[in-house]
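Annex B, item 7. Sequence and structure tokens for protein A, then protein B.
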Amino acid sequence: MIGRGGRILKHMNIKPFLWGGVGYPCLELLYRGRTHPSMALCGAVCCAALCRIARGRGPLPLLALKGACAVTAAEYAAGMLFNRRHRIWDYRRLPGHVQGQVCPKFFAVWYLAAFGVMAAVRSGIFPRPRA
């Protein structure tokens, strides 16, 4: 039954998935010198979510806060799926961490990243798909 799914795919924009799936692992390589294949999937999902949230109504700082929450939730989910033994990342030494998977320091980083991505979306880098 392709009908509904086909219509949904027709309206999707693949660019955010590609930017996130390639961009996030590259940023990790620059920052930490290593990454993990699961980070490409997480980056793709997060970038697509940020682009979707950016198209909502409201001031950019509030949308970026929603985006940071979405990215932190995705980071936690990815951590519980792929990082149970803390071999990919480990926030256990950082204050306020939750099971070593997420922490306030990186929530702030995700807020700044979300703000940047959403500003780019609003400027037209990721155009809306045609109806």
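Protein B:
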Amino acid sequence: MKLILKICAASVLLITAIGPLSTTMLRAATMDPRSVKKPEMTSALLAGKQLYDAKCAECHGVNTVGTNKGPPFLHRVYHPGHHGDGAFFYAVRRGVKQHHWPFGNMPPVPGLTDEQIKSIIRYVRALQDANGVF
């Protein structure tokens, strides 16, 4: 009986902690794209932006601010020390199971070469750098 009470108490604490976290994370996915600081746009970054806008912005938002379909990349969870470039590359190429956000699994993104994916990652990292993610 004591074990059941401990499990119930732990469940209530977990639900209480996760509820506000999910709300906070969803709110973070609705940043105003006009508030994003832009890096100096080189031709390489412009190429990455064009690819991002065509292949990623529908879910991850204009200027990487997120949407109701996918998270923002201007969030500390995407700091290179936590999600390195390889994690981004793998997610685009193979898809990824939901693990930080309540948006569901991300499917693979077809029609991109390895170099195009790297270009998108450089653009995302430049926006993150300009906005203090790292």
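Comment on protein B: The domain at 2-130 is CATH 1.10.760.10 (Cytochrome Bc1 Complex; Chain D, domain 2).
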